[in-house]
């Protein structure tokens, strides 16, 4: 099993560009989440999903969109990148209220 | 909204010394989880506590969940260089499906 797979691992964007961070899991987990990690801020929840077709906002949703058309995939879209979105992004999935499994992360720089 | 704070933000110890990180939530938690993130890596699940006042041990690590289910602690006895990393607590408040992470404690261990 691959677990949680995130692509790309690194990305540099110019301000105003859009892009999609991909996340896929092969564990049939219903819960999937996106977090961003910034120094001193811990992991902050951006958006999450409790199943295909269902998404909800987390702590810091502005500037990001998500969709969940299948159980496996949960892409994160940056609509118009800003320097404040420079961060490390982690996708996670879990089954029920159990442990969360994380992807390897995407290091995004917006210049 | 639910907030989870951790102290200290950073701790530097000599190998063999003990280490404790504290986690405090603004709301009552249904459970608390602990994760470890090695430098450059992704968070990895350590343990979950569910019951009020629960104490669990994993070798040199001791985890506690407060009686009011609003705080938790992780204690490491006789730290080793392999303990280096950032330790996060994470919890869900009430009926929410959101898993909110704490701000993390970065542990540095000097040989």
Brief rundown of the structure:
Chain A is mostly beta strands and 111 residues long. Chain A has strands at 4-7, 10-13, 19-25, 31-38, 42-51, 54-57, 64-66, 76-78, 87-94, 101-102, 106-110.
Polypeptide structure, described:
The complex is a heterodimer of chains A (111) and B (111). Chain A is mainly β and 111 residues long. Chain A contains no helices and eleven strands. In chain A, the strands form two sheets. In chain A, strands 2, 4, 5, 6, 9, 10 and 11 form a seven-stranded mixed sheet that branches. In chain A, strands 1-3-8-7 form a four-stranded antiparallel sheet, with no helix packed on it. In chain A, strand 4 and strand 5 (42-51) form a beta hairpin. The model of chain A has no long low-confidence stretch (mean pLDDT 96). Chain B has no helices and eleven strands. Chain B has strands spanning 4-7, 10-14, 19-25, 29-37, 44-49, 55-58, 61-65, 71-76, 85-93, 100-101, 105-110. In chain B, a hairpin with a 6-residue loop joins strand 9 (85-93) and strand 10 (100-101). Chain B is globular, with a radius of gyration of 13 Å. The relative contact order of chain B is 0.34. The model of chain B has no long low-confidence stretch (mean pLDDT 95). Classes of the chains: A mainly beta (111), B mainly beta (111). The A-B interface holds A 31, 33, 35, 40-45, 48, 50, 56, 58-59, 90, 92, 94, 97-105 and B 1, 4, 6, 9, 30-31, 33, 35, 42-45, 48, 88, 90, 92, 97-104.
Overall outline of chain B: globular
Low-confidence stretches of chain A: none
The largest sheet of chain A, given as strand count, sense and whether it forms a barrel, is: 7 strands, mixed
> What is the ordering of alpha helices and beta strands of chain A?
EEEEEEEEEEE
Give the largest interface: A-B, 26 and 24 residues
Strand % of chain B is: over 45%
Strand content of chain A: over 45%
- Could you estimate the helical fraction of the residues of chain B in percent? under 10%
The succession of helices and strands of chain B, N to C, reads: EEEEEEEEEEE
Evaluate the radius of gyration of chain B. 13 Å
Radius of gyration of chain A, CA atoms, in whole angstroms: 13 Å
Tell me the number of strands of chain B: 11
Helix content of chain A: under 10%
What structural category arises from helix and sheet content of chain B? mainly beta
Counting H and I runs of at least 4 residues, what is the number of helices of chain B? 0
N-to-C span of chain B: 41 Å
Helix vs. strand class of chain A: mainly beta
Q: Based on CA inertia axes, which overall geometry of chain A fits?
A: globular
Mean pLDDT of chain A: 96
Mean pLDDT of chain B: 95
Oligomer: heterodimer
């Amino acid at each position: 099993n691959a677990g949680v797979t995130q692509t790309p691992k690194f990305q540099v964007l110019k301000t105003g560009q859009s892009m999609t961070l991909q996340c896929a899991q092969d564990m049939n987990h219903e819960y999937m989440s996106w977090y961003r990690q910034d120094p001193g801020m811990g992991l902050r929840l951006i958006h999450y999903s409790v199943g295909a077709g269902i998404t909800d906002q987390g702590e810091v949703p502005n500037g990001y969109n998500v969709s969940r058309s299948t159980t496996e995939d949960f892409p994160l879209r940056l609509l118009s990148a800003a320097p404040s979105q420079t961060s490390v992004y982690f996708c996670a999935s879990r089954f029920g209220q159990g442990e969360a499994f994380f992807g390897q992360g995407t290091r995004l720089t917006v210049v | 909204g639910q907030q989870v704070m951790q102290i200290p933000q950073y701790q530097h110890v000599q190998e063999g010394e003990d280490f404790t990180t504290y986690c405090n939530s603004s709301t009552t938690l249904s459970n608390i989880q602990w994760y470890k993130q090695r430098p450059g890596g992704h968070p990895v699940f350590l343990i979950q506590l569910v019951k009020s006042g629960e104490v669990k041990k994993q070798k040199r690590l001791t985890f506690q969940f407060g009686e009011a289910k609003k705080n938790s602690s992780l204690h490491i006895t006789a730290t080793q260089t392999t303990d280096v990393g950032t330790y996060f607590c994470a919890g869900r408040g009430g009926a929410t499906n959101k898993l909110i992470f704490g701000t993390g404690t970065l542990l540095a261990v000097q040989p």
